Amino acid sequence: MAQADQQNPSDEQEVMKGTSAVAKGVMAANPDVVSAYPITPQTGVVEKLSELVADGKLDSEFIKVDSEFNAASTCIGASAAGARAFSATSSQGLKLMSEPLFTAAGMRLPIVMAVANRSLSAPLSIWADHTDAFAERDGGMLQFHAEDVQEAIDHVLLGFRVAEQVNLPALSNFDGFILTHVQEPANIPTEEEVSEFLPPREPEYTLDPSDPKTMGAYARPEHWTESRYEIQRAMMESREVWADAVEEFKDVFGRDYTEYGGMLDTYYADDADHIIVAMGSIAGTIRNVVDAYREDGEKVGMVRPRVFRPFPAPELRDALADAESVAVLTKEMSPGYESAFAGEIKGALYHAESQPPVKSYVLGMAGRDVKPEDIADIIEDVKTATPKMDFDESESWPQLRPELLKGGDA
Amino acid sequence: MSDTQDPYENLKITTGVVAEPNTSRANKTGSWREFKPVIDTDACIGCGQCDTYCPDQAAKPVEGEDFYGFDLDYCKGCGICAEVCPTDAIEMVREVK
């Protein structure tokens, strides 16, 4: 849980920009290869890493490339040769990496990436939302969402640990600008701590000219299905691996992400009548609104999936079981249907014992501020949720400015 | 690898589907071809431009000769060799099937 009451950095903490803090965390994981292409708002991560390499503080190959496609492809080559490979990107850069990232998943290469979430063009925007991460949902990459800078650091370390055990790439998401450009206190892990938590990578196969192998080449119809099924199985197995990793993380670093096996983080959700579900940095604002409702004696709570892939379906079923209504706040949308996040939560509840009504709210797109009063309005609205709702009733865009739309107030 | 044995027959699904090298040679892609390269061995000066540019490594020097030939098991008939040949020794001829 984020420490809302903690104002000043403790002795162990340092105050630095989010991107620098993540880079320092990556440094402690001692990657063999870093390859990336600059893009706002990620740039600071790899800029700091290149500086650390140039200053001799980090013994890694920093490979400069001509595009994100090449950055991801370079990581594939490095990872196939047995290296621990890291990259970072945002938005359009993640789009350009999409093809090699699906390949990395199929080749079962545990590349870990920090993704500074930003909306996708057009229109061009450099600001935060989750449309980039959701567009990569089906590739076979593990995905986590950080609430604050500390989690953005820690999820990368957990990412390496889990990715290297289950042989899948990982995207560690943290909101662009809100977390990349904020300065807040965080514990920067040391290399000693990380080496205790993160064993050296032991790949099953490596590219080796003296013992050549073909990786990720042609598969006929009689083989492809099985190779894709193995990704699904690795994803499902990663739930257990993640649960063990957060336990050990707590022992080594003292930070506790063990709730619901590390899949969910909840805030006053146990006895809540109305539960907000959201991912990422918006959770900080939601906590304040929950506090205000609780002061008034109203049972409102929050459930925040920390992990998005594998999807925390059993955990969400449990956490939402006793709610009268559920409000999904999401910074993405799937044109032609509803929010993908909301759809997955509803899917998780479909065969569950208890099926609280779910309303989804598309907001905070492309960095639009979400204020406490916006969230309070949503809590009031979700109280009207019923088991049967038309599509127009179940999803809304509460921040929409009708005066900007074609034909005036739509 | 023997040419007659299908290397895919007993392909095991390893982590990341790692296979022995050269397995793709079993997939003979020459049947896709609409045009095939025919070389005028007198005009060929053996410069190897066709080999350099062939995307499928199907143009090779003919053993014991000073001209080039084509492996029709893999040549897809793209015609790049005919384009780059400095002596116009290669003609693309429609396949009769």
Automatic annotation (TrEMBL), chain A:
Domain annotation Pyruvate flavodoxin/ferredoxin oxidoreductase pyrimidine binding: ranges: 25-241
Keyword Oxidoreductase found: yes
InterPro entries tied to this protein: PFOR_II, Pyruvate:ferred/Flavod_OxRd, Pyrv_Fd/Flavodoxin_OxRdtase_N, THDP-binding, Transketo_C/PFOR_II
Residue segments, region Disordered: 387-410
CDD domains (UniProt xref): TPP_PYR_PFOR_IOR-alpha_like
Keyword terms of this UniProt record: Oxidoreductase, Pyruvate
Gene Ontology terms, MF aspect: oxidoreductase activity, acting on the aldehyde or oxo group of donors
All copies of domain Pyruvate:ferredoxin oxidoreductase core, residue ranges: 272-375
Name recorded for this polypeptide: Pyruvate ferredoxin oxidoreductase
Origin species: Halapricum hydrolyticum
Automatic annotation (TrEMBL), chain B:
Keywords annotated in UniProt: 4Fe-4S, Electron transport, Iron, Iron-sulfur, Metal-binding, Repeat, Transport
PROSITE patterns: 4FE4S_FER_1 (PS00198), 4FE4S_FER_2 (PS51379)
MF (Gene Ontology): 4 iron, 4 sulfur cluster binding; electron transfer activity; iron ion binding; oxidoreductase activity, acting on the aldehyde or oxo group of donors, iron-sulfur protein as acceptor
Occurrences of domain 4Fe-4S ferredoxin-type (ranges): 35-64, 66-95
Cofactor (UniProt): [4Fe-4S] cluster
Pfam families membership: Fer4_21
Key word Cytoplasm present: no
Assembly and oligomerization: Heterotetramer of one alpha, one beta, one delta and one gamma chain.
Task performed by this protein: Ferredoxins are iron-sulfur proteins that transfer electrons in a wide variety of metabolic reactions.
Protein name per UniProt: Ferredoxin
